[in-house]
Amino acid sequence: MSRPELVAPPEIYYGDSEAKKYTQNTRNQQIQADMTYRALELLNLPPEKPAFLLDIGCGSGLSGEILDEEGYNWVGVDIAPSMLEVALEREVEGDLFLQDIGQGLGFRPGSFDGAISISVLQWLLNAETSHPTSSPPHRLQLFFTTLHSALRNPSRAVFQFYPSSDDQIQLITSIAQKAGFGGGIVVDFPNSKKAKKVFLCLFVGGGGGQQEIPKGLEGEEEDGKARFERRRERERSRAKNGRRRTIKDRDWILKKKELYRKRGKEEVPRDSRYTGRKRKPVF
Amino acid sequence: MVRLVTHNLLACHAKDCNTNNFPLGFQNVQLEIREAEFNPDFVRAFLPKIEWNALVKTARELGDTSLPDEQPEMVDDDFLQNLHHVLFELHVIEGAMVCPNCKHVYPISDGIPNMLLAEHEIA
Ligand SMILES: C[S@@+](CC[C@H](N)C(=O)[O-])C[C@H]1O[C@@H](n2cnc3c(N)ncnc32)[C@H](O)[C@@H]1O
Ligand SMILES: [Zn+2]
């Protein structure tokens, strides 16, 4: 299997047809979902506390949908317009930004309670041009420094990615450390060719040994699969029972508008037969 | 969908643009109001992150005058409802965001802001 990041720049590789193919493939959906659950586990957010998360390289929203399901508020950034279009069509709840993470992020200090990134970081290891601002180390450094400042102290950022060598892992972790992060690499199922997954687990703050690098999962693929699937069932039912958000009904919106009118607020949209309807995809 | 919850966290990230680069000003805005579930806990947890003056100013520019000049000391349900509406239910779907300092224009189309910088704007 050839590596997509060697084929073309991301916004070209993930064009209209690949974006659709990628998103509709049920096996891929399952894999991305499982890795998102595992990333959330490694993120180790305080339970039952609302969190505002960043999904780095959110793509068409396969990872973001899990965040929705789990009741998190999130913002997604991605460089491929076609992937973001599919995310819009799928009506994910997060705000989406067209952004090259290698150019750095512009979020104010402490904006996010955590960040996840699923199958993205390997893309930053390949230069597109010979311009100095597009050398991989420069882009990684810009990305990690601005990410570090955008995260709350203490918090974590968890990246699942596909390194092609130990040198790449070394390069990425050393630049992340220079940017101020603690943490390191977690490898799940290191002995299984198929199920092996690499996670970069970065910490902001929490010195004094409070933040310890989590342990990777052991065993063979089958065990891993079973485990993830069980968890997925559990998460599903939890989401259904409690934290899953509901779309507000029409009555509620009408009441709300009434309230605004009473306060003399202008430009409250007129009630129409569209009020309270689910918005149609834009495309 | 740029909600004010996100807009309030966003500063300009162009090269050497480090002061007076927040909040980005909205231009030629097309606004859509989309209902979102009211979660008082989340609104409350978000309060410490908010740059209040920027939020009030931006909300007013978008025609919502429900927020007081000063962040109230008493946080009651009515206030949280208003804040919820401003943060999560106002969606800018077309228009642009402009940096008050370097004047970089971040266009918004179909609810997605284009944050890409030109080569010479990259730090
Ligand atoms: C394999 S997809 C993963 C998408 C999503 N996280 C998921 O789990 O389905 C990789 C994504 O990384 C994005 N990407 C690659 N390089 C990027 C960059 N420099 N900035 C932002 N996004 C990037 C691609 O556009 C693509 O959507
Ligand atoms: Zn600027």
TrEMBL record, chain A:
Q: Name one GO molecular function term.
A: rRNA (guanine) methyltransferase activity
Q: Which InterPro entries match?
A: Bud23-like, Bud23_C, Methyltransf_11, SAM-dependent_MTases_sf
Q: Where is the composition biased (Basic and acidic residues)?
A: 224-238, 264-274
Q: List keywords of the entry alphabetically.
A: Cytoplasm, Methyltransferase, Nucleus, S-adenosyl-L-methionine, Transferase
Q: Name one GO biological process term.
A: rRNA (guanine-N7)-methylation
Boundaries of each 18S rRNA (guanine(1575)-N(7))-methyltransferase Bud23 C-terminal domain copy? 202-281
Q: Where is this region: Disordered?
A: 212-247, 263-283
Predominant localisation class? cytoplasm
Q: Which Gene3D superfamilies match?
A: Vaccinia Virus protein VP39 (3.40.50.150)
**GO annotation, cellular component aspect:** cytoplasm; nucleolus
Listed Pfam families: Methyltransf_11, WBS_methylT
Pinpoint the Methyltransferase type domain residues.
Answer: 54-126
Mark the transmembrane ranges: none
Q: Enumerate the subcellular locations listed in this protein's record, separating them with semicolons.
A: Cytoplasm; Nucleus
> Which family is this sequence assigned to?
Belongs to the class I-like SAM-binding methyltransferase superfamily. BUD23/WBSCR22 family.
**Which protein is depicted?**
S-adenosyl-L-methionine-dependent methyltransferase
Q: Which organism is it from?
A: Leucocoprinus leucothites
Automatic annotation (TrEMBL), chain B:
GO terms (BP aspect): rRNA (guanine-N7)-methylation; tRNA methylation
Q: Which InterPro entries is this protein grouped with?
A: Trm112, Trm112-like
**Which Gene Ontology terms cover its molecular function?**
protein heterodimerization activity
Self-association state and partner proteins as the record states: Interacts with TRM9.
Q: Which family does it belong to?
A: Belongs to the TRM112 family.
The name of this protein is Trm112p-domain-containing protein
